[in-house]
Amino acid sequence: MAHDAGPAARHELLTNVRDLLKAVRLFKSDLPARHETVPTGTIGVLATINTIGGEPIGGCHLKDLAARCALDPSTVSRAVAALVRSGLVARTADPRDGRASVLTVTPSGLDTLDEFNRLADERLADALRNWSPEDIALLSGLLQRFATDLLTRTDRNLEVAR
Asked: Burial, 160: exposed, middle or buried (Cβ in 10 Å; 0-12, 13-18, 19+)?
């Protein structure tokens, strides 16, 4: 049964979401500053290329990457160009469609992702040092539920770029 928590509870949640987004933005901005090979604002795109590349298709197309990131293709194209220039991503012709390119993470890109994930894990471990495993699991589950519920109720979903 659905319950409406009321406008005061939703207002408090919105305030907390803003604080969370600010904290995440600061968290993300601090990490690349410590790793100069990652062009600003591209670590999420790099990680997504790696995730898609690990699927049976073995690489990804820009259109699919934009859809998965829920970003405009032109925004993703600029991020990919910066990652290619940095040597973190390779762009090769699609053997099935010569007009398209396949994006893959290079060995240097994999090393960079590993380093970035290590740094992020250290920062999270420090921030969560006084949290119980149960609290961390509860937060993770609730954040996943919240994200899923928001995504299923938005006009602009993960298929935005298709």
From this structure: middle
CA proximity to 88, closest of 64, 66, 73, 104? 104
Residue whose structure tokens are 């919105």: 14
Give the three-class secondary structure for 101: strand
Helix, coil or strand: residue 130: coil
CA distance 104 to 106: 6
Alpha-carbon gap, residue 59 to 96, rounded angstroms: 13
**Quick one: which of 100, 117, 108 has its CA closest to 44?**
117
pLDDT tens-digit profile, the chain (162 residues): 567 778 999 999 999 999 999 998 888 777 655 556 777 778 899 999 999 877 655 688 999 999 999 899 999 999 999 999 999 999 998 888 878 889 999 999 999 999 888 988 999 999 999 999 999 999 999 999 999 998 888 765 445 444
Q: Model pTM?
A: 0.80
Burial of 84 (0-12, 13-18, 19+ CB in 10 A): middle
How many CB atoms are closer than 10 A to CB 99? 6
